[in-house]
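idk why but the lab printer keeps eating my pages so im just putting this in chat instead. protein + zinc ion:
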Amino acid sequence: MSDMVPEVLNAALDSLFTPKEPGEQEYQGVDGLLYCRNCHTPVQCRVKLWGRDKIVPCLCRCQQEAMAEKKRQDELVERQRKIRQLKATGIQEKHLLEWNFGVAEDNKDIQMAKRYVEQWKKVKAENLGLLLWGDVGTGKSFVAACIANALLDQGIPVLMTNFSKILNQMGAMYSEERYRYIASFSNYSLLILDDLGIERSTEYALEQVYAVIDERYKSGLPVIITTNLKIAEIRNPQDVAYARIYSRILEMCTPVQISGEDRRKSIGKEKQQVVKEVLDL
Ligand SMILES: [Zn+2]
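predcted complex ->
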């Protein structure tokens, strides 16, 4: 009886794999297998099933290449979808999406930012944070956004936000929700906190600022902070509440002074140039 099973199967397989006539794009080779007219590799192969030779369909080279290409295209589409999604959640302010290396002047601040991105693996492994400080209009947020966009383009999760926004969102939350919200920042390989120092300075606000900074510290993941505050102020704060925030920041971040040409002024200059040309002044 046990011998009967393979016989039954063999009959079924024979009917399934009966050698077929060559199709329009096929021809029969000297080995009896069908070949693809296009790539001249077989569209059939011989396999042993229950001790018998069977001829089964297989993919010729051009079909294999087409499948590999389709897989590559699907992966590319999926990757682009993932990047779009990462950008939508990581950078909520639309204008920041346009701040990238492609539109940046090639100054020393931008070169530093490019190296930060190039060395990202090391930056992350060594948890190398940055404190970008400098006067208003020097382009600290621009530099940070360039880094954010370049990493997001590589599929690396980045969140660029600021404390005004964080405090605003936390305002409507219960303490348990607040905790989860702060913990959710650990989902981002890089956290960028823009414009430290412009948020409210109430006891509650400073408590939350410390909670966010401290959570990042515990996560062991890098953070980039931008601020208009003077580095001396950060190193020697007057107030205890600020002192514990700033000392945590200095533990995580290397201060880098951003001195770049005033971007807003230079945009102003470009505009003036355009106006001159348009109005033929
Ligand atoms: Zn082929």
